[in-house]
Amino acid sequence: MLVYAHECRVNIVFSEFDDAIFAVLVVAKVRHEGGLQAQTRSRNRRICRIAYSFHNFYVFKRYFVAERKADLAVIGIDLAMHRSILEADEGICGYVADCEKVYLFGEHCIYYIKQCYNIAMTLREHITVARANKKAIGHFNAANLDGIWAIADAAYELKVPVIVGLSEGERDYVGVIQGAEIIKSIRKERNQEIFLNADHTYSFERVKQAIDAGFDAVIFDGAKLSLEENISIAKKCVEYARSSGRDVIVEGELGFIGQSSKVLNEIPAGAVIGEEMMTKPEDALRFVNETGIDLLAPAVGNIHGMIRGGDPALNVKRVKDISDKVSISMVLHGSSGNSDEDVENTIKAGIAIVHVSTELRLAYRSGLVKSLSEDTDEVAPYKYLKPAKLAMQKVVSEKLKVYNQ
């Protein structure tokens, strides 16, 4: 049985029980967030009735969400009861099967609903959708306005979400408040899904500074600290983000992979390469549970910077093992120099965001050197800098195509 939801003006097809639950969770999620107007809710109730018209209560209830997702389930039940479609008992939340799958269904479907009504998605929603589709959001570092526009233009042309990263050094150069306002202005002017992350931040004070300035996400990098100290500061960062009044994503890093975004002759001292030293699933679980972070950046054979002669292969199995253990999305840092195949496999294994920096710096520098050498008399910066920006944009575009296949 197929039912097309023309009321939503999108091509959502409801077939079999998975698609029906898909629809119901959209209704629950949208009503929970209060993001749509009354007439939109009316259309969504129509979807709900369609979904329920060919699925009985007992098939439905075992797909409801449990534990921290229970509020979504309760809202869905309440809506269904309000429409006199089914009678729910108090023990419905006890019937649970594959709750994460259901949650991802709901998050994935709301993407289409929000697109239909031109409602901007949050970074958190984009991450969830990427993970559900085994794709990844590209995170690209910039050190000036050229870099920011290279990233923004590449993503805009491909119509995909993107994250601009500013490390501590890059924030010092661009300006913390200035960087945040630039991204906000691009997002507003173009209605573009572009977000800003405070990359590799080594103290609570600087995390706080980025959150106060309006960054969409922050990373506390305590990879060189003991596990206990890393947990303590990361937890403090999470607590501050939650108290900010905005939905700020907080990422924690577990396992040292170096700190330099440049071409290296050898693996950085202290960087984790051997499998026995990589982030362990049990440590990752403890770190996530005790800090409350939204994203985890593990050490899985990745290295910051690029090694002459080629970077070590990524340990895809370790990515999968950690992903199976923790409930949150993961981030791959230091992907410059890794093969597209390696990166694609980590995305399939659970990576939802991929960081690139060194390759962009090389592209920008090469483009600038070529531009200056080809026209030694040019003195207008907007002319001789443009080829550098376009060279960087080309790399961003190529990477985004890989991550969004």
Task: Enter the CATH topology name of the largest domain.
Answer: TIM Barrel
CATH-scheme architecture of the largest domain: Alpha-Beta Barrel
The total strand number stands at 12
Beta-strand portion reads 5-15%
Q: Radius of gyration in whole Å, from Cα?
A: 23 Å
Mean pLDDT: 74
Q: Which helices and strands, and how do they pair?
A:
Elements: E1 3-4, E2 13-14, H1 16-33, H2 38-53, H3 57-61, H4 70-82, H5 99-116, H6 123-132, E3 137-141, H7 145-158, E4 162-166, H8 168-174, H9 176-190, E5 194-201, H10 204-213, E6 217-220, H11 227-242, E7 249-254, E8 263-264, H12 281-291, E9 295-298, E10 306-307, H13 316-325, E11 329-332, H14 340-349, E12 351-356, H15 358-374, H16 381-384, H17 386-403
Parallel strand pairs: 3-4, 3-12, 4-5, 5-6, 6-7, 7-9, 8-10, 9-11, 11-12
Antiparallel strand pairs: 1-2
Helix pairs in contact: 1-2, 1-4, 1-5, 5-6, 7-17, 10-11, 11-12, 12-13, 13-14, 15-17
Description:
The protein has 405 residues and is of the alpha/beta class. It has two domains: 3-116, no CATH class; 123-403, Aldolase class I (TIM Barrel, Alpha-Beta Barrel). Helix content is 52%, strand content 12%. It is built from 17 helices and twelve strands. An eight-stranded parallel β-barrel has the order 3-4-5-6-7-9-11-12, surrounded by eleven helices. A two-stranded antiparallel sheet has the order 1-2. Strands 8-10 form a two-stranded parallel ribbon. Strand 11, helix 14 and strand 12 (351-356) form a beta-alpha-beta unit. Helix 1 (16-33) runs antiparallel to helix 2, helix 10 runs parallel beside helix 11 (227-242) and helix 11 (227-242) packs parallel to helix 12. The chain is globular and about 60 Å long. The two termini are 30 Å apart. Residues 1-22, 24-106, 259-272 and 305-311 have low confidence and may be disordered.
